[in-house]
Design goal:
Order of helices and strands: EHEHEHEHEEEEHEHEHEEHHHH
Largest sheet: 4 strands, mixed
CATH class of the largest domain: Alpha Beta
CATH architecture of the largest domain: 3-Layer(aba) Sandwich
CATH topology of the largest domain: Rossmann fold
Number of helices: 11
Radius of gyration: 21 Å
Distance between the termini: 19 Å
Number of domains: 2
Length: 369
């Protein structure tokens, strides 16, 4: 791991802690000169450059999805610039699947611009939407992956290794069964709302191959601290069965308006949904602390449970606070110095490591010396 460029200070702290020998440039890449980037990383001659330009502007979850005026929509140009400067053998870019539909103000497809610019740099370029469960990640998560290589690859994308089918069909015979949510988190210390700690001892032995893989030789568990739910919120969760969300609770437990004792008129079907233990989890977004309820406990997931669902190894420690005040609120009140990527944000924004591993191994075995 050579290094990284990242704007957020907490994300930088996490990266530095887990990769102490890497070079980390903290700041806005659009404000960095070519000379600064080459000076920091050019001496390493990196073989691979990975990029994940912020995808909010392209996301199907965004009400302004694909808005050509969204400045986040142009950050892919910085990914192209890094490729031009460092000339790596491989460039890999990850984004939301909806990027293939995104267009510029002049009605050009963004994905075609990306491919054309990479091809102009001398790369062979392919793109495909991959499903995380195909590579043993216990989470239903589709992501667009763009792979650019100086050497043309016969098979740029890895073959699937896992299946979510209980009884595999003819095409999936021989594949491993993808772990479920419970396969991912059942060995973690049992804690209730307001319990847990940033560092604690394991209380159980690993119970399956997935848990043994993510534990490896780790002796402690990190970031397993439950949120400080109110008594009323715990009661609301207690009323919910698997598959239920906040919109399914009894009337007297309905969410209240902010800073009020009156019931809210708004119900969000995707908020605080109790997950099924025997299935793969729904997509873990950046704000997943409010999306999911533990299948058996009356609380939301801890950051470590989210990390397990993303397939992060247990030795990977997330820095910064577990959660922060809404970024929209901070923006509205001008409190930008308090705007950080909390532990949950860092986990939800990431590419699942097991999916990234499958992509990397497939490319490396075809590159040769």
């Amino acid at each position: 791991m050579v290094g990284a460029i990242e704007m957020d200070s907490w994300a930088c702290e996490t990266f530095k802690f887990n990769h102490p020998k890497a070079t980390v440039m903290q700041g806005d890449i659009t404000a960095m000169t070519d000379e600064q980037i080459v000076s920091a990383f050019g001496k390493f001659k990196p073989d691979i450059v990975l990029g994940g330009p912020p995808c909010q502007g392209f996301s199907i979850c965004n009400k302004n999805s694909g808005d050509p005026k969204d400045p986040k929509n142009s950050l892919f140009e910085e990914f192209i610039r890094v490729g031009r400067l460092l000339k790596p053998r491989v460039m890999i870019m990850e984004n939301v699947p909806n990027l293939v539909k995104a267009k510029t103000e002049s009605n050009d497809l963004v994905i075609e611009i990306i491919k054309n610019e990479l091809q102009n740099l001398g790369y062979h370029v392919e793109h495909r939407t991959l499903e995380a469960t195909d590579y043993g990640v216990p989470q239903i998560r589709k992501r667009l992956v763009v792979i650019a290589t100086q050497k043309k690859l016969k098979n740029p994308f890895p073959e699937k290794t896992h299946s979510i089918m209980s009884t595999p069909d003819l095409f999936e015979v021989g594949l491993k069964k993808c772990p479920t949510l419970w396969d991912a988190i059942s060995d973690l210390p049992e804690i209730e709302a307001r319990e847990g700690a940033e560092e604690a001892e394991y209380t159980k032995s690993p119970q399956n191959e997935y848990q043994r893989l993510l534990r490896n030789s780790t002796t402690k568990i990190f970031n397993h601290k439950s949120m400080n739910h109110s008594k009323r919120l715990v009661e609301r969760f207690a009323s919910m069965s698997c598959g239920d969300s906040s919109s399914d609770v009894p009337d007297h437990l309905r969410p209240l308006r902010r800073n009020s004792t009156e019931f809210s008129d708004k119900t969000y079907d995707q908020n605080n949904r109790r997950m099924h233990a025997d299935r793969q989890c729904h997509t873990v977004p950046a704000s997943f602390y409010a999306n999911f309820v533990h299948p058996y406990k009356n609380r939301n997931f801890t950051a470590r449970e989210g990390a397990r669902i993303q397939s992060f190894p247990d030795w990977y420690v997330f820095k910064g606070k577990p959660t922060v005040v809404s970024h929209k609120l901070l923006q509205r009140e001008g409190r930008l110095e308090e705007k950080h990527l909390c532990q949950y944000n860092q986990i939800g924004n990431a590419v699942p490591p097991l999916m990234a591993k499958a992509i990397a191994e497939n490319i490396l075995k075809q590159l040769g010396d």
